[in-house]
Design a protein that fits this description.
It contains 6 helices and no strands. By secondary structure, it is mostly helical. Helix 2 crosses helix 5 (124-133) and helix 3 packs antiparallel against helix 4. The chain has one domain (37-154).
């Protein structure tokens, strides 16, 4: 009788272990789905931002002129450029934050949206606006963006005053 009780305990222990393995697999799959959902949400946010620029030649030309100073911007265009830069900064922050929370790989920020934003803030007009707006953004993000700009400038990939 004692033998069968011992066998029962072993079978019960194996059942518990198997159920924990099953729960672990389910959690892993659930986390993968959540990460994919975060990536999809980020892509949707960026699609909206990009469409605002490539959907209008006027906006694209204003944005380019704001970055490179090829023509002076009137007060309305300066306001539009500043707001586009803020929007770009906040959209990039969303990627940075998801990276910090482990929901996206670091490369999405450092070789993707973060680098794209650095290329903008390293233009004459972009640098001027970045100097004004970075205080409105979370400090760790602004510091990481400045670090990314400095890293790429040091590597000779672009010239940037930050």
């Amino acid at each position: 009788m004692e033998y069968w009780a011992f066998v029962g305990q072993i079978v019960s222990a194996l059942a518990v272990v198997l159920s924990l393995v099953f729960v672990g697999i389910q959690l892993y799959e659930s986390n993968r789905v959540a990460a994919r959902s975060e990536a999809n949400d980020t892509q949707a946010q960026w699609a909206s931002f990009r469409a605002s620029i490539y959907g209008s030649r006027d906006i694209a030309e204003m944005f380019r002129a704001g970055m490179d100073g090829s023509r002076p911007l009137d007060p309305a265009d300066k306001l539009r450029f500043d707001y586009l830069m803020r929007e770009h900064g906040w959209a990039t922050y969303q990627v940075w934050q998801r990276v910090q929370e482990g929901l996206m790989p670091r490369a999405h920020y450092e070789q993707g949206q973060g680098l794209d934003f650095v290329r903008v803030i390293c233009t004459p007009g972009g640098a001027a606006v970045w100097a004004r707006i970075k205080a409105e953004l979370p400090r760790p993000y602004a510091a990481d963006t400045d670090r990314l700009a400095a890293d790429y400038a040091r590597a000779g990939k672009l010239r940037c005053g930050s």
